[in-house]
Write a structure and sequence with these properties.
Its EC number is 1.14.14.5. This protein has 388 residues and is α/β, with parallel strands linked by helices. It contains 13 helices and 15 strands. Helix content is 39%, strand content 17%.
C-alpha cells in the first residue's frame, strides 16, 4: 500500500473547533510538515483546496526544493481555470519536481463557495463540466509527447488546436485521483481517473463503492485503483488513543457543532451527506455513540467538512483497520492527524513497520535497524542498544 500524509493549509490545532491550541500555518510550518513526511518515507502529501485554504499550487510549488522524494497530490478545480492552463501548470510542476506530481480532481460541493468562485452550476452540470475538463486536460498532455494538438467541442468547454510544447516527465500524464459518492461521480471515476478515493466510511460500505466503480470501469475496458482518506489517532495503548480522541473534541460546544452541521446540510455533496449521517447514528459525542465501526470514530466530522472519520487504537489495531480497507480494494491511504507535524512522526514510528508499504522507507526511520548511534547518548559515551 501507499501511504500519504496531509498539508493543513486551512489551519492546524490540538483541539477541533476552537482557537485554543491553534498554531499559525505559515510557510515555515508547512515546510516542516512536508520535510517530515519526505524524511519519514510517506509516498506523498495531499493539499486541500477551497476558499478556506491557501492556494494548493502556490504552496506545493514553493515546497519542491525543500523536499526530495515526496509527491504532491494537488487539486485542479474545473471552472476556476481552463483545462489548457491546468495542463501547462501540471506539466511545468511535474518537470520542475522531477516527476512528483499527482492530480486531485475536485468538483466542489459547497454552493455558497462555488457561487463566490463564479461557478454557480448544479450538481449534474458540475460533473458534466468536470468530465469535459479532465478529458481535455488528459488529451492535451498525452498528445504533447508526440507534439500533437487537440480539438474538442463539448457542452461546457471547447478547445481548438490546443497544444503543449513542454510535456511532463510522467507519461502519458501525471496520475489523476478523484473522489465522489454520487452516480455521476462513479461514472466520472470509471471513465477518466487512475485512482478513486473514498472518505473513511465503514469498510463494508467502502467496498460497495469500490465494487461499483470497478464494474463501471470494466464495462469501458478500464481498470481503476482505489484509496481511502482518513484521520488517524494512534497511541502505544488503546486507552491512550481513545483518550486522545476525546481530548481532540473536548473544547467543542453545542453551538459550534450545530453551526457546522447547518453549513454542511446546505451542500449538495453526496459524500458530505454520507459523512454527516455517520456521526448522527448515535446522536451524541461519547465513544459508544461515535464509534461507528470497530476503531472507526466519527468525531472529527462533528465540525470538519469532508473526511470526518478517524481510525483510533494502538499500532496493531490501526494497522489491522487499514488492512481491512486494503482487503476491500484500497492500495492507497491519505492520512492526517492533529497536530499534523507531531502525528506524522507518531504514525510513521508506530505503524509503518506493521504495513506492507509499496514505497521504500528511509534507513533513519525509527524502529528500523540503524548503522550508527541513535537515541539519546547518556553518560558521555553510553549508546543505547537497538530495540529488538
Amino acid at each position: 500500500m501507499k501511504v500519504l500524509w496531509f498539508l493543513p493549509t486551512h489551519g492546524d490545532s490540538r483541539y477541533l473547533g476552537t482557537s485554543e491550541g491553534a498554531r499559525e500555518v505559515d510557510y515555515d510550518y508547512l515546510r516542516q510538515i512536508a520535510q517530515a513526511a519526505d524524511q519519514l518515507g510517506y509516498y506523498g502529501v495531499l493539499t486541500p483546496t477551497g476558499r478556506s485554504c491557501e492556494d494548493p499550487w502556490v504552496v506545493t510549488s514553493s515546497l519542491i526544493g525543500a523536499t526530495k522524494n515526496l509527491r504532491f497530490l494537488v487539486a485542479v478545480r474545473p471552472g476556476l481555470h481552463q483545462p489548457a492552463l491546468a495542463a501547462r501548470m501540471a506539466a511545468t510542476f511535474d518537470r520542475l519536481s522531477g516527476g512528483r506530481l499527482l492530480i486531485n480532481l475536485v468538483t466542489g460541493g459547497d454552493a455558497a463557495e462555488l457561487a463566490g468562485d463564479g461557478v454557480p452550476t448544479s450538481h449534474s452540470e458540475r460533473y458534466e463540466a468536470s468530465a469535459e475538463f479532465i478529458r481535455i486536460w488528459r488529451e492535451i498532455i498525452t498528445r504533447s509527447h508526440a507534439g500533437e494538438s487537440f480539438d474538442f467541442e463539448g457542452k461546457h468547454l471547447s478547445v481548438k488546436g490546443a497544444k503543449l510544447f513542454y510535456p511532463p516527465l510522467q507519461q502519458p500524464h501525471p496520475p489523476v485521483w478523484f473522489g465522489g459518492s454520487s452516480d455521476a461521480a462513479h461514472d466520472l471515476a470509471a471513465e477518466q481517473v487512475e485512482t478513486y478515493l473514498s472518505w473513511g466510511e465503514p469498510p463494508a460500505d467502502v467496498r460497495k463503492k469500490f465494487d461499483d466503480v470497478r464494474a463501471r470501469a470494466a464495462r469501458l475496458g478500464r481498470k481503476v485503483r482505489f484509496g481511502v482518506r482518513l484521520h488517524v489517532i494512534v497511541r502505544e495503548t488503546e486507552s491512550e488513543a481513545w483518550a486522545a480522541a476525546e481530548k481532540l473534541i473536548s473544547r467543542l460546544d453545542d453551538e459550534t457543532v450545530a453551526r457546522a452541521q447547518a453549513s454542511f446540510a446546505k451542500m449538495d455533496s453526496e459524500g458530505q451527506r454520507r459523512m454527516a449521517a455517520l456521526h448522527r447514528q448515535g446522536g451524541g459525542r461519547s465513544r459508544a455513540e461515535l464509534e461507528i465501526s470497530p476503531h472507526l470514530w466519527a468525531g472529527v466530522g462533528l465540525v470538519r467538512g469532508g473526511a470526518g472519520t478517524a481510525i483510533v487504537g494502538n499500532p496493531e489495531q490501526v494497522a489491522a483497520k487499514l488492512r481491512e480497507y486494503q482487503d476491500a480494494g484500497a492500495d492507497a491511504f491519505v492520512l492526517s492527524g492533529y497536530p499534523h507535524l507531531e502525528e506524522a512522526y507518531r504514525f510513521a514510528e508506530l505503524v509503518f513497520p506493521l504495513l506492507p508499504l509499496e514505497h521504500a522507507l528511509p534507513e533513519s526511520l525509527p524502529g528500523r535497524k540503524l548503522s550508527g548511534p541513535f537515541g539519546e547518548v547518556v553518560a558521555n559515551n553510553h549508546i543505547p542498544k537497538q530495540a529488538a
